[in-house]
Specification:
- It holds the Pfam family CBS.
- This is Helix-turn-helix transcriptional regulator.
- Keywords: CBS domain, Transcription, Transcription regulation.
- The protein contains ten helices and eight strands.
- A four-stranded mixed sheet has the order 3-4-5-6. It has a two-stranded antiparallel ribbon with strand order 1-2. A two-stranded antiparallel ribbon has the order 7-8.
- With 214 residues, it is an alpha+beta fold.
């Protein structure tokens, strides 16, 4: 096994953080000339730690991606990169219709929005289970009666790291998080705009895809 030099390891780190990046930019980051690192770049490309495309530059190779730890991967990946579309219902939706939607869409949590499309709350399978057990009148109740209201909902931003989002999921013991952006100024008193949802399944899929490609 070829042991990489400290400079070669530093080049890999620069490429990971700034890809795509040119050889000149890498050399500048190291305060060296381009000819000085030419052999290092050639070796790293040959060993698949970095890769290169003409007129594009250098980017992480297969081995570099495979060496990324799960924590590093989740820190570098943004929520917006792996979020999915939310399953939305309205506050006036009956619990019966909400439960039907829950199972037809095969999700664990429904996002509830108001008439303006702002996040009003969320409702999970547990919420529906609690209200329906031993309560025959629950079916016709509006979902607003059982949802967790927006002010108490844990959310994430599209620009948050997936690692931070994962920490929230673990701390608050939830399986998914609404992805929101704050309403524009001048709309005080309204909830945030719902733009997606992030699930534990999406995070696990992200990690498995990188492992498979490595």
């Amino acid at each position: 096994m070829i042991e990489l030099t400290s400079r070669q390891l530093e080049i890999i780190d620069i490429v990971k953080k700034r890809a795509p990046i040119t050889g000149e930019q890498i050399a500048e980051s190291l305060n060296l000339s381009r000819p000085t690192i030419r052999s290092d770049l050639s070796i790293l490309v040959m060993l698949e730690y970095i890769d290169a495309k003409p007129k594009v530059g250098y980017f992480p190779g297969k081995k570099a991606v495979a060496r990324l730890s799960g924590g590093y991967l989740l820190k570098e990946t943004k929520v917006k990169d792996i979020q999915s579309n939310p399953i939305i219902i309205r506050e006036a939706t009956t619990i019966q219709d909400a439960v039907v939607t829950l199972f037809l869409q095969d999700v664990g949590t429904l996002m509830i929005c108001d008439a303006d499309g702002k996040l009003a709350g969320v409702a999970s399978r547990k919420d529906f289970l609690k209200v329906t057990l031993g309560n025959p009148a629950a079916a016709s109740m509006p979902v607003s009666m059982v949802m967790t209201r927006q002010s108490k909902v844990v959310t994430v931003s599209p620009e948050d790291s997936v690692l931070d989002a994962a920490h929230k999921m673990i701390f608050y013991e939830v399986d998914s998080l609404p992805v929101v952006v704050q309403s524009e100024k001048g709309q005080e008193g309204t909830g945030p705009d719902l733009v997606g949802r992030l699930t534990k399944a999406s995070i696990i899929k992200c990690i498995l895809e990188v492992e498979a490609n490595g």
